[in-house]
Design goal:
Low-confidence stretches: none
Strand order of the largest sheet: 10-9-11-13-14-8-15
Helix content: 25-40%
Number of strands: 15
Order of helices and strands: EHEHEEEHEEHEHHEHEHHHEHEEEHE
Radius of gyration: 21 Å
Length: about 425
């Protein structure tokens, strides 16, 4: 932060402010179950210590011709409530903070406004809280670099992309109808699978589940697309953390996406080959030239939206755009955060970890995180056909992944007021 205790938002941060109240609004959510009842005094102390390590979260939103993060001197609030009774407006009910923490019995939840940071930034902060809670923060997993830039620091208009074949468009959702829910309510499923099974399928110790789970889910979705559809391709938008390939660090949003389509011919292929194709496409998208090009295009597009004046017109126009891209950009999304980045000692106290994230685009979103050798796969979806996730479990088992039967529930998503 500068001398005035303010920090400007980057293009992608501002994009998420534009998204609020639109068809693609999203407040992601972490939920952890401990091996003991939560001690509220220890939790309060842990949050206080984590805020020192991650001052990006000790902020509130401020607007003066543009949005800023400004140091928040108000006390943070920890809510002792059940998931169903937790506050549903972050700023309004949390002293201006763009995140909230709730606990009940042996569980702690953390949810945050996407304008503040992406999943990688949020999991760093939440993991710091958990490490501090169990007093295992002598050797922090992450070093904090508070940067005023995200994708902007790697954008370069002169960069040309490496050759990359354009992916086919996905099916029209009118051939896979959606079920309407009350505002900010959707159906969630948690499927747990052994991490080693995913590695065995891909035959690579460093394999990403992005090359295994999206094609399996796509194959499951294809079972339910209407026979009247001329196009049965299933397009998945995979989130890529630009920090890793570009060797940068920032707490601001710093993600790009890569669309990969499951086409008809994949049904007849050996799944290992399909997975290899996905991995090859992902590897190409992670090349420095393509990351820079994607970041540049994304920043340029968002800045074009942000240049619209006045603010009320900008928001109104974006909300119309959101309705279109929600339906047309892809059929579902995929986000993988890797292992829960806590110390081994802290990890031994974590019995369960849930990462829920609504589908910004398409009809479903698959959010995955690895805890103690188990991948926790959370699928939030709005399909009128209720058998898709069970079909996904079946497809996993067909290739040797011992997926458990899904746990299903309804999630009410928190929101915000800008």
């Amino acid at each position: 932060m500068n001398q005035n205790n303010t920090c400007p938002l980057n293009a992608l941060d501002n994009y998420n402010i534009l998204a609020f109240g639109s068809a693609i609004e999203n407040i992601p959510y972490f939920h952890v179950r401990l091996d003991q009842s939560v001690n509220p005094d220890k939790l309060q102390k842990a949050v206080r210590e984590a805020l020192i390590q991650y001052p990006h979260f000790q902020t509130k939103l401020h607007y003066n011709k543009q949005y800023f993060l400004k140091k928040n001197n108000q006390a943070f609030i920890i809510h002792n409530v059940s998931v169903d009774r937790r506050p549903l407006h972050l700023e309004k009910e949390n002293n201006g903070y763009l995140w909230q923490i709730c606990y009940e019995n042996d569980t702690i939840s953390f949810e945050w406004c996407h304008a503040l940071t992406d999943g990688r930034g949020a999991i760093r902060f939440f993991s710091a809280i958990l490490d501090a809670y169990f007093e295992n923060n002598a050797n922090p997993v992450f070093n904090t670099v508070l940067s005023d830039q995200g994708l902007e620091q790697i954008a370069d208009p002169a960069q040309k992309p490496l050759s990359d074949k354009k992916q086919p468009k996905g099916y029209d959702i009118k051939y896979m109808p959606s079920e309407k829910h009350a505002s900010h309510r959707y159906r969630c499923h948690v499927v747990k699978i052994p991490t080693q099974d995913v590695l065995n399928v891909s035959h690579k110790a460093d394999a990403s589940p992005a090359a295994v789970l999206p094609p399996l889910f796509s194959k499951a979705v294809r079972r339910f697309i209407s026979e009247k559809a001329d196009n049965r391709t299933v397009c998945c938008s995979i989130v890529i953390d630009a920090r890793t390939p570009m060797h940068i660090d920032t707490m601001h949003n710093c993600i790009i996406t890569k669309q990969i389509s499951y086409v008809d011919r994949f049904d007849e292929m050996d799944f290992n080959l399909v997975s290899t194709i996905y991995r090859s496409i992902l590897d190409l998208s992670l090349q420095k030239e393509n990351v820079i090009y994607s970041a540049t295009e994304l920043v340029k597009g968002i800045q074009g939206l942000l240049s619209i004046r006045p603010k009320v017109l900008r928001h109104a126009l974006f909300h119309q755009i959101a309705k279109i891209i929600k339906k047309q950009q892809c059929n579902f999304g995929f986000s993988y955060l890797g292992k829960v980045p806590v110390s081994p000692e802290t990890a031994s106290h974590l019995l369960d970890f849930d990462f829920r994230s609504w589908a910004d685009f398409g009809q479903a979103n698959m959010s995955v995180i690895d805890l103690n050798g188990t991948m926790h796969v959370n699928i939030c979806e709005e399909y009128a056909e209720h058998g898709v996730v069970s079909a996904f479990v079946h497809e996993c088992r067909n290739v040797g992944i011992a997926a458990q039967e899904p746990q299903t529930f309804i999630q009410t998503e928190a929101s915000n007021v800008f």
